[in-house]
Structure formats: structure tokens, C-alpha cells
């Protein structure tokens, strides 16, 4: 079950995503909390090389989604 937007700490979300990606060998170097918009609780995924984006897409396709 996905929590409401207001209930999710963006720092916790960043660390959770970083850990999940690390489990697949994917690193998003610019992954961070967007400090320019604290009320929106945005996560900045940053820029990645094309090969990393392709690996991320592949990992998402293979994932077990609800």
C-alpha cells in the first residue's frame, strides 16, 4: 500500500530508492531531495547516462509490481 504524499519523508524516500537501486547495481549520482521545494516534497532523480537509464528501465520491467 502506498502512503499519502504528505506522509512520506522525502529523505526516507531517497534512501529507500537508493538502496533499492543499489540492489540492482544501479547508481543515480544526483539522486537527492529537492531542497528548492520543501512543501512539495519532491525528489530529484538527476541526470544519468543513457546506459544507466536503459538499465533502470530494464530493472523496472523485471520488477514485481502490484
In short:
This protein is 39% helix and 6% strand. The protein is mainly alpha-helical and 66 residues long. It has a two-stranded antiparallel sheet.
What descriptive keywords fit this protein?
mainly alpha
Can you walk me through this structure?
This protein has 66 residues and is mainly alpha-helical. The protein has two helices and two strands; from the N terminus they run αββα. A two-stranded antiparallel ribbon has the order 1-2.
Task: Describe the secondary-structure layout.
Layout: H1 10-22, E1 32-33, E2 43-44, H2 50-62
Antiparallel strand pairs: 1-2
Low-confidence stretches: none
Helix and strand element order: HEEH
Number of helices: 2
The percentage of residues in β strands lies in: 5-15%
Quantity of strands, as a count: 2
| Helical fraction | 25-40%
